[in-house]
Structures are given as structure tokens and as C-alpha cells.
Amino acid sequence: MAIGSVVIGGDNPVALQSMANTDTTDVDATIAQIGRMVELGCDLARVSVPDEQSAAAFSAIKQSVSVPLIADIHFNPDLALAAIEAGADKIRLNPGNINARERIAPVAKELAGRKIPVRVGVNAASISHEFKQLYQEDPVKAIVESAHRYVEILRDFGVEDIVVALKSSDVLETIECYRRYAAESDLPLHVGITEAGPGITGAARSAVGIGILLAEGLGDTVRASLSGGVEDEIVVCREILASLGLREAPRLVACPTCARAEFDVAAMADEIRTRVMTLSKSVSVAIMGCVVNGPGEAEHADAGIISVNGKFMIYRAGKVIGKGLDQADALRALLSEIESLETEQ
């Protein structure tokens, strides 16, 4: 299935998706944010289309971004039609708030006629009225049946390019939903833990849920739904994919610190984190606080730094290229080596 220039399903790579959290009517801010998302490795970008003004802005955004653009639609099917006219590469519909057949029909006909993909995005917190009682008794069955019903309606109108998401904020519930649906359908799956939460909490929940599903071979697109910066969503997803060998990505290695650490490892790692994360190559950088694991990790990395008896050593490709440095000079030297990693053939 093609979503703009990105092909998903089958043996194609798992696509990394995130969603802009800017006001869609602020075209410049939305374009700028999507640009940062792409720089970090985002393959598919989604924006909310909650009103006519946002639908009008969608076209300008679409023309100025380099990745396929998805319109997120709730409640009003007319906004889906407007987004289709504005050039959406994919539409997300929520069975919880656009569920009557007569309301789905106009959108489905346009999607089928123009061969535009659609995501059936079932959320536990926004399930259609007809499945609410079932949800109280068997939440997994309610979510799965809701997805099946919506897919059937879309297919009745000739829509074939369908992606399904079955999300809950409960990790185990989400995993079981995807397992059960995948046993009954071969449609592509968008996986994630919805409303996973802020910061490290949301990252942990997302890593467990998404990681288990991907390790079982389930998932064609992924998103970590975090409360906060979309940049963090992309880094979390990218690290999940890289950890499972499903995507190449730069890797920052840093020790957890203890009483042996001779400098503030966390502060230095934070200082260079953004630069490492935006490298376009699959390289590794190690920041190590002492001589226990420091030399070994630094030797294994493409570039590394350790401290020994208050002085710093710089490694490159397994060899010491600088030693006896103070922290400021060592940091500058490490950053220089990181920059050269980007330009090396």
C-alpha cells in the first residue's frame, strides 16, 4: 500500500509516524515542526483538521513538506472531504465519532475513487455507542469488532487501501487487541499505545507495547503517543525500531553513572544528544564516566569520550586520538569527531 511516497505492508520497512501538535491554521509553525520531525527520521506526518480553517490550511502545509501528510478527522465527515480536496495522502477516521453508514458513505466513495488510503483508528476511550456495553464486558472484543464493522462498511463502497489501529492506554489490552485482530485479518496495522503519558513514563509504556508487537511481526507503521514534544515521539519510536534491528539509527551510549563517575555524564550526554540524534548515519557515540566500562564502550563506538584521573580521553574508531584533555577541550574535540562522522564516506 502506498501512502504518498511511502510504501507499507509486506516486506517493506516499518514506517515511523508522528503528529504535529501545532495549531494547524498556523501554517508556518506546522511546516517548521514537520521539518524537525523529518530531520529526526519521521516518515509520515499527521495533522489535526478540527475545523474549516484547518482544512483550508492543509493544502499550504501539504505543498511545503517533504513527507506524506495525513489528515486526522473526527466528528465531521465534511472535513475529510475537504482534506481529500486539499491533497491528503491519507485520512484517519475514528469509528467512535463518525460511525453511521450514511455519514461514512460520501468519504468512502471519494477515497475509493481517488485510491487514497484510510486508517480506521479505533480508540478504547472513543468507542462507538453500539460497542460500549460490550466494552464493559470484553474490551478487547469490543475494539476488534468495532474495527471489523468499520472495515466492512468501507469495503462496501470499494475502499481497499485500509490501515487499522486498535489502541488503548492499557498496554496489555492493546497487545491483545492487535494479536486478536491480526489473527482474523491481513490488513496493515498502525501500532502504538494511545495516551501513553508524559516523558519517561510514556516512553516506557510505548516501548513495552510497541516493542512486543513488533517483535511478534505485527505493525507496519508506528507512533509513540506522548504528552509533550513530537520530537521525543520520533526518538522513542526510532530507538524501538533500531533496538529490534528494524531500522538503522545513530546510537548514543552513556553510562548510568555512580560514585565512580568523574564528571557529569548526564549533562554532557544531554548537551550532544540532539546532534547525535540528527546524524543521518548509523553510527555510535559513547560517553563514559570511569575506567570500568569506559575504555571498552569507547573502543566499540565510532567516537567516544572517557575520564581517567580527572583528565579526558577521546576515541575514534577504536583508537585513542586525544588524551590528557580538560573537559572543555575534550567536549570540543568530541563534537568535532561527531561532525566528521557525518561527512565521512
Oligomer kind: single chain
Question: What is the number of beta strands?
Answer: 17
Mean pLDDT: 96
The largest β sheet comes out as: 8 strands, parallel
Strand content: 15-25%
Could you please describe the fold and organization of this structure?
The radius of gyration is 23 Å and the shape is elongated. The longest helix is centred in the middle third of the chain and has 18 residues, at 139-156. It has two domains: 2-243, TIM Barrel, CATH 3.20.20.20; 251-343, Sulfite Reductase Hemoprotein, domain 1 (2-Layer Sandwich). By secondary structure, the protein is of the alpha/beta class. Helix 1 (27-40) links the parallel strand 3 (15-19) and strand 4 (44-48). Helices cover 45% and strands 20% of the residues. The strands form four sheets. It has an eight-stranded parallel beta sheet with strand order 8-7-6-5-4-3-11-9. A five-stranded mixed beta sheet has the order 13-14-15-16-17, sandwiched between helices.
Furnish the topology, listing elements before pairings.
Blueprint: E1 2-3, E2 6-7, E3 15-19, H1 27-40, E4 44-48, H2 52-64, E5 69-72, H3 77-85, E6 90-93, H4 101-114, E7 118-123, H5 132-137, H6 139-156, E8 162-167, H7 171-184, E9 190-191, E10 197-198, H8 199-215, E11 221-222, E12 226-227, H9 230-243, E13 251-254, H10 265-277, E14 284-288, H11 294-300, E15 303-308, E16 311-316, E17 319-325, H12 327-343
Parallel strand pairs: 3-4, 3-11, 4-5, 5-6, 6-7, 7-8, 9-11, 10-12, 13-14, 14-15
Antiparallel strand pairs: 1-2, 15-16, 16-17
Helix pairs in contact: 1-2, 1-9, 2-3, 3-4, 6-7, 7-8, 8-9
